[in-house]
């Protein structure tokens, strides 16, 4: 009988230890998910495809880090950041909007360049051959707002050529301009080379020699006093790395 009682006591002890281990493991599960870092990246609309690819690779290399991407016109993003929208990293489509961030921009670095191109419906049914042709009778043209980098670049082309585009609308982002053309709401639009390339056979492209003189430099920065500034620096390193640069250049971006 004593042997039986001893065996029962040992079994109970083992079960208690096992139960304690299980309880400990269960308690650690929420803890591990709670330690996940969310890196908030605000980036120009023209970077959507490339930054999504870079973010995917970054997350693979940084277990426990989730990259939350927000895309819009650079001017819009600056305003959002100034109003308190969470952002650890900001990537602008021009240096002018980066400068608007002021001292909150920590040592911005240029990581890519881009130029403009005209997009039309496939086959270019309106026969647009130049920047001046955007004002042809019967042609509905859309451009970006002047506050946005793509709009500012278009304004510069207008000044350089002496041609003012009579646009049907001015959009908040280059993506919106592209959508107007691909959806048939406009006959032509002025976008970046990368946007046209990303659209593939949904558009035809027209290059005007005047576009070569207007090059947008894309800077990226961590945002001062952001919650995850150190992880943001690592993300910037990934953008500037050979792998990140390859993704950007395959999408049509120029070298910094």
Automatic annotation (TrEMBL):
It holds the Pfam family SBP_bac_11. PROSITE patterns: PROKAR_LIPOPROTEIN (PS51257). The keyword Signal applies. The keyword Signal applies. Residues 1-18 form the signal peptide. Keywords: Metal-binding, Signal. Belongs to the bacterial solute-binding protein ModA family. This is Molybdate ABC transporter substrate-binding protein. It comes from Gordonia hankookensis. The lineage of its organism: Bacteria, Bacillati, Actinomycetota, Actinomycetes, Mycobacteriales.
């Amino acid at each position: 009988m004593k042997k039986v009682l001893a065996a029962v006591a040992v079994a109970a002890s083992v079960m208690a230890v096992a139960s304690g281990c299980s309880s400990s493991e269960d308690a650690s599960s929420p803890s591990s998910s709670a330690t996940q870092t969310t890196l908030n990246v605000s980036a120009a609309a023209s970077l959507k495809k490339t930054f999504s690819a870079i973010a995917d690779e970054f997350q693979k290399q940084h277990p426990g880090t989730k990259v939350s991407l927000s895309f819009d016109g650079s001017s819009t993003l600056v305003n959002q950041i100034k109003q308190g929208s969470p952002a650890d990293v900001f990537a602008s489509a021009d240096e002018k909007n980066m400068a608007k961030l002021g001292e909150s921009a920590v040592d911005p670095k240029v990581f890519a360049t881009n130029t403009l191109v005209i997009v039309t419906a496939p086959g270019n049914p309106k026969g647009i051959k130049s920047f001046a042709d955007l004002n042809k009778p019967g042609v509905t043209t859309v451009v970006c707002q002047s506050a946005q980098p793509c709009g500012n670049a278009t304004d510069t082309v207008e000044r350089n050529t002496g041609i003012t585009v009579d646009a049907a609308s001015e959009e908040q982002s280059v993506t919106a301009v592209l959508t107007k053309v691909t959806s048939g709401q406009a006959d032509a639009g002025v976008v970046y080379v990368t946007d046209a390339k990303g659209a593939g056979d949904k558009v035809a492209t027209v290059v005007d020699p005047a576009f070569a003189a207007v090059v947008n430099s894309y800077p990226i920065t961590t945002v001062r006093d952001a919650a995850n500034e150190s992880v943001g620096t690592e993300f910037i390193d990934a953008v500037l790395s050979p792998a990140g640069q390859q993704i950007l250049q395959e999408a049509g971006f120029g070298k910094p």
